Amino acid sequence: MPVYRDEAVVLRTHKLGEADRIVTLLTRQHGKVRAVAKGVRRTASKFGARLEPFMVADVQLYEGRSLDIITQAESLGSYGALITADYPSYTAASVMVETADKLTESEGSLQQYLLLVGALRSLSRREHGAGLTLDSYLLRALSMAGWAPSFQDCARCGTVGDHSAVVVQLGGIVCDDCAPPGSPRLDVEAVALLSALLTGDWEHAKATPERTQAQATGVVAAYTQFHLERGLRSLEHVSK
């Protein structure tokens, strides 16, 4: 089919020529798509604002040889302006779309699409703290990609118990027998928070003190960058 429609979230954009943009989309049904939006940088463009990062739109595309062409775009979720108005939300959203871009390098995923849209919607509505929302998104996105961390049983041998050593290379929390010498240790509260973020227990997550949240954030960042095998450029700008 030369022409198709799909729902999509805008991951990033690049200038092309004087008036066009290349838009990278994560779509609901067709995976990740790179397409040209012609004339969107002109002030008279009808759908330029609908194709900014973090926006969700119903798009119509024409299949091209190397890049598809966006012919229509109707807004489904105008999250961009609300997110960019708040710096912590903006930096968190930037990490989210960069992560989604890397996780869907080879093929798309409906689960990844729905997770990203839900996280961006939550950020725009300020439902939870931006940092907590980001950490929860990263843990869930990595789990969907096949890298589910363990924050209860030992990630290496499966021993049940209250473990405190964390080794991201081994998959999360490990018992004392499996922990290499010098492995960092987490407070009980930080381990519980990581579990809450992974399962979506927001009542527990929001009740934890900032010091515990900061400890958990460090683990999530290390775990994410280890499994993506490449640093996330936007992560360094996230508010600490």
UniProtKB/TrEMBL annotation:
Is-annotated flag, keyword DNA repair?
A: yes
Q: Which UniProt keywords apply?
A: DNA damage, DNA recombination, DNA repair
Q: Where is the DNA replication/recombination mediator RecO N-terminal domain?
A: 1-79
SUPFAM superfamilies named among the record's database cross-references: ArfGap/RecO-like zinc finger, Nucleic acid-binding proteins
Q: Name one Pfam family in it.
A: RecO_N
Gene Ontology biological process terms from the UniProt entry: DNA recombination; double-strand break repair
CC annotations in GO: bacterial nucleoid
Q: Which InterPro entries match?
A: ARFGAP/RecO, DNA_rep/recomb_RecO_N, NA-bd_OB-fold, RecO, RecO_C
Membrane-crossing residues? none
Its annotated function is as follows: Involved in DNA repair and RecF pathway recombination.
Q: What family name appears in the similarity comment? A: Belongs to the RecO family.
State the name under which the record lists this protein: DNA repair protein RecO
Q: Which organism is it from?
A: Cryobacterium psychrotolerans
**What lineage is on file?**
Bacteria, Bacillati, Actinomycetota, Actinomycetes, Micrococcales
